[in-house]
Design goal:
Helices cover 42% and strands 15% of the residues. The chain is α/β, with parallel strands linked by helices. It has a 7-stranded parallel sheet, sandwiched between helices. A two-stranded antiparallel ribbon has the order 6-7. Bound molecules: adenosine-5'-diphosphate and magnesium ion (MG). Magnesium ion binds next to helix 2.
Length: 291
């Protein structure tokens, strides 16, 4: 426990993991943020969903498996710090940073499983932020998802990790790297506990200007959704406010408690966050209900 911030961030696993059988039915609902593309908004959206669920009264755990960037961890530390220094009443999750093993994927798995076990004893939902790369730890986290949220920039460069697309017709030619990885983890999840993964793709940093690109992306995503099995949620606009809030550890759901004067942009951005929360909790709910 960091005395100053109050956030629990064990650097190393203290005791051996539980037997596999005990881990089979993870009771907490697992919401994973994933996309092999860096900079797509995983950590920003994960933070907003953590705070949204806390404010809705859930017992929320969070796990950061991107120990290299540790954006979610840093965001939460900033939040704890500002709550402390300014006396704001800001809800915080029970947080774990899982440090990537230098030795083996097995050690990664032990560390991750132990974090899940610990959090699912006290939390009914666990939000996991993953790195923008294909690593064993990230794959493992995906295989535990009840809900997988994939933010992507509204660009064909980002879409290329989901599917190859015909440049003339915009027809989907075949799924690509990230979609195939998700398919593999869906099979693992099914084999482990017969569970399924509700996959949501969210377009992030939508431009107000580029309507032709927007329409083309929409068309491709709609046909891809049916083909590889995801649903889409309303996207987030490209707004400076999402970049500015990191340092203060605040989200758009905290503004009332911090005496911030709301602008039209705040209100529009906050609605986007609420729409995402509605999409996340309204899917087929396999474990602890979130409604
Ligand atoms: N909707 C948005 N509007 C503007 N900037 C955004 C938005 N979402 C994320 N960002 C910014 O984009 C960058 C990448 O976001 P981040 O959440 O760190 O992505 P990832 O975790 O996928 O690498 C950060 O600088 C973040 O502040
Ligand atoms: Mg990140």
């Amino acid at each position: 426990m960091n005395e100053k911030t109050g956030i629990t961030i064990p650097a190393e696993v203290a005791s051996p993991p539980e037997p596999a059988a005990k881990r089979m039915g993870v009771p907490a609902r697992m919401i994973i943020f994933g996309n092999e593309k860096g900079g797509s908004g995983k950590s920003t959206l994960a933070m907003h969903v953590v705070v949204g669920l806390l404010r809705a009264g859930h017992k929320v755990g969070s796990i950061d498996v991107d120990s290299r960037q540790a954006t979610l961890t840093r965001y939460l530390e900033n939040r704890a710090m500002i709550a402390d220094t300014k006396g704001f009443n800001l809800p915080l999750p029970e947080h774990r940073l899982v440090i990537r093993s230098e030795r083996s994927p097995d050690e990664d798995a032990e560390r991750f499983n132990q974090a899940v076990d610990a959090l699912s004893r006290t939390c009914n939902v666990v939000v996991v932020d993953t790195p923008g790369s294909d690593a064993p730890l990230s794959r493992l986290a995906h295989s535990y998802a009840d809900t997988l949220v994939t933010p992507m920039n509204d660009s064909f460069v980002d879409l290329d990790l989901l599917a190859k697309v015909d440049p003339e017709t915009f027809e989907v030619i075949c799924p690509s790297a990230y979609a195939e990885m998700v398919w593999e983890q869906r099979k693992k999840r099914m084999a482990r506990d017969r569970g399924s993964i509700d996959w949501i793709v969210v377009r992030n940093r939508l431009s107000t200007l580029d309507t032709r690109n927007k329409r083309n992306m929409e068309k491709v995503l709609d046909s891809l959704a049916k083909r590889i099995g995801f649903r889409t949620a309303p996207g987030f606009g490209d707004r400076v406010i999402f970049r500015e809030m990191f340092l203060s550890g605040l989200t758009l759901l905290d503004l009332r408690d911090t005496g911030t004067k709301l602008t039209m942009s705040h209100i529009a951005a906050r609605q986007e966050v609420r729409d995402l929360l509605t999409a996340v909790v309204s899917g087929p709910v396999p474990a602890a209900a979130l409604a």
